[in-house]
Design brief:
Layout (H helix, E strand, L loop, with lengths): L1 H26 L16 H11 L4 E2 L2 E2 L6 H12 L5 H12 L2 H6 L5 E3 L5 E4 L2 H32 L1 H7 L1
Antiparallel strand pairs: 1-2, 3-4
Helix pairs in contact: 2-4
Length: 167
């Protein structure tokens, strides 16, 4: 009895779902292409000043140093230990802005040293890492160009760019 009742309920649910799908597809005839959603980016200067303020050993004369592998975890532990009250999200945005910057990727040359939280050298850049840095730089440039093109098209179709040009 229970088995039969469950099967009937399941069939009724499937029937309702099919009806909803059918009516939904009939009413929505939109064939728009979904646009990619880009993450919020922290400006490089802001990211460098953020590091300079909390970990001065990672910045030399306003330039970020090459960071040790897995430094994010070390920085998170340092935030907890020192009770800095910084968010993980802000730290991730900061590290992303720095490690994706042209300055950082250009500095990743064979023989350059990665630094720990105190600014002490911990590991030299190997050839594979230098090659990866150049590939990553090309990917970032492609992403930026694509993002700018999408923003330009959005502005063009919404008329914002036309209004800006008139003013």
């Amino acid at each position: 009895m229970k088995k039969k009742a469950l099967e009937e309920k399941a069939q009724a649910v499937r029937k309702v779902e099919q009806e909803l799908l059918w009516t939904g597809s009939q009413t929505e005839k939109s064939y728009s292409i979904p646009r990619p959603v880009y993450r919020k980016e922290m400006p490089l200067k802001e990211a460098v000043s953020f590091l300079q303020e909390h970990w001065p050993g990672l910045v030399d004369e306003g330039n970020p140093q090459l960071l040790a592998v897995n430094i994010r975890q070390t920085l998170l532990e340092d935030i907890r230990r020192r009770a800095l009250g910084l968010s993980t999200k802000k730290l991730k945005q900061c590290l992303a802005a720095i490690t994706r910057s042209d300055e950082y990727l250009d500095a990743m040359m064979v023989g350059a040293w990665r630094k720990n939280v105190d600014g002490q050298p911990v590991a030299a850049i190997i050839p594979d890492e230098a090659i990866f840095a150049q590939m990553r730089k090309a990917q970032e440039h492609t992403r930026r160009v694509r993002k700018q093109a999408l923003e330009w098209n959005r502005d063009k179709y919404t008329g914002e760019q036309c209004q800006n040009e008139i003013e």
